[in-house]
Amino acid sequence: MSQVPQPALDRIVPPSGRPLVLAVRPGQPELVLRTAAEWAEALAAPLYCGYVDPRRMVVTEYPDGSVRHEAVDPDLADDSWGRTDATLRSQLAAVLDPAGVRWEFRYLAGRADRALTHLARAVDASAIIVGSRHPVAAERLRDLLDGSVALGLTRHQHRPVITVPVGVVDWKHTLR
User: Fold this and answer.
1) pTM value?
2) Judging by DSSP bridges, how do beta strands 127-131 and 20-23 pair with one another?
3) Closest CA to 104 of 34, 44, 37, 48
4) Phi then psi for 104, rounded to 5 degrees?
5) Averaged confidence pLDDT in the chain
6) Does 4 fall in a domain?
7) What is the CATH classification number for the domain harbouring 77?
8) Nearest-CA neighbor of 149 among 116, 104, 101?
């Protein structure tokens, strides 16, 4: 059994000028995109935005971080992914183009932590940026069962993960 490469000093990817990967999703708060744009500007780095569709599976992974994908259930003729792709590209352009950020979009498939790790490796990203979710009960239960994307990323690859908070819970309310 081979040993999994671990985070180490020789695996640090210098951040200046190196790409950043941003996890995106429909309806994501603009705060996440603007925060990623600020990081990209500060580092003079391109931003690779990736949406991971769990209803689709990867057929082929390409060296540029893109994938060929298909529906998990081939009997379901589902072309809604094309609408999601177009919607996300439009949302990204509306926020990132005026900011002057160089960006590309990748429609990914499968498990979010694996897909984003593949993209980060492919573009040799210095970090991955993800937005946290609103702390509502349903999301907390899903995180408990499935684990959060940010947590999955920190456990399965060596790049720093920058988490953008989009909602917080007052400490007084969590102590009950």
Assistant:
1) 0.82
2) parallel
3) 48
4) -135, 155
5) 84
6) no
7) 3.40.50.620
8) 116
